[in-house]
Every structure is written in C-alpha cells, then in structure tokens.
Amino acid sequence: MKKTLSSLLLFGFISSASLFAGDYNVDTSHSNIGFKVKHMMISEVSGKFDKFSGSFEYDEKSKTLKALNGKIDVNSINTANEKRDGHLKSPDLFDVQKYPDITFTLNNVKGDYAYGKLTMHGVTKNVKLALENNGAIKDPWGNTRVGLGLSGQINRKDYGITWNTALEAGGVAVGENVKLDIQLEGILTQS
What we know:
The chain is mainly beta. It has two helices and eleven strands; from the N terminus they run αββββββαβββββ.
C-alpha cells in the first residue's frame, strides 16, 4: 500500500510538472541570429543570418529551458555588403555549396549557461553560451511566448574556416574570434 501511494504521488508530481512544460517554435520575425568579427584588427563588422528555424522546450513553472534545436541557412548570411557576403559564401570561408547549414543542439543548462553542440562547416564542437532567460508572457492574441538570449564566442578556425590575408602593417584582415548574439522569441505550439 505504501509503495503504491508513493508511486501515485511520484506519477502525480511528474504529470503536474509536464503540464507547465511546453514546446515552442521560434518566431523568426521576432528573432535574430547575429555575429561580430574583427576587421583589419581595428573594428568589428556585424552580420546576421536571415533564414533560420528552431524549436525549444520550456518549463514555465520552473522557468527552465529543457531543449533547443536550431538550424541556420548559411546562404542567407547578410553583412549589408553583397561583395563580402559572396566571399563569405565561397569555398574560401563557409563553402555553402558543400556545407549549407549550421545547427545547434542543446545538451543542458547549468545556471546562466547553455551547453550544446554547434555544427558548422562539417565540424561539431561543444560550446558554452551565456543564457538570458526572459521568461514567458501572454501576447494580446492569447499566445504564450518565451524570450531567450544566447551569447558567446567561438573561434572560426576550430571549424576549419581558416582563410585570411596578412596585412602589410602586421596582423590579419579577419579576426579568428566570432562573437555570437542570438535573440529568440518562441510561440507555444497548440496541441
């Protein structure tokens, strides 16, 4: 009897916890996948990807991100300079014909950090990103929305993106470190 009661209580706890967890689709019109990289060792150039998709699981009760999967169309890279974007898509750098996508899969969340696997240019590496959890709200149309921010830094050479040009005065044209700034807004999927 005691064992049965314990089992029922555990089942009830797990069931009630799952009532607050939900699956969200990334609202791409209110999200941004951005980056910055040093140019000529003196300034930073910003860019973004215009086409991407993703989904995540978020527990409203515990305010916890449980899962996240994202996919970026590398051909949609946009640095507001057509010539530079063309070079970024070429075999010198991203090689979009061979590697059309960048993907991210969350492994876990610890405190204010998200840990996951980033695959780019055919290489998968573990990454640690600062997580900004903005919580859930109801929008004016009755949808539940969650806002998340992810930021961090990766070294592009770790992913086999090594092209560069030496500068006459010393240094290189393009920095190795890439700062990531990802802002996601998700809409709860209706069951």
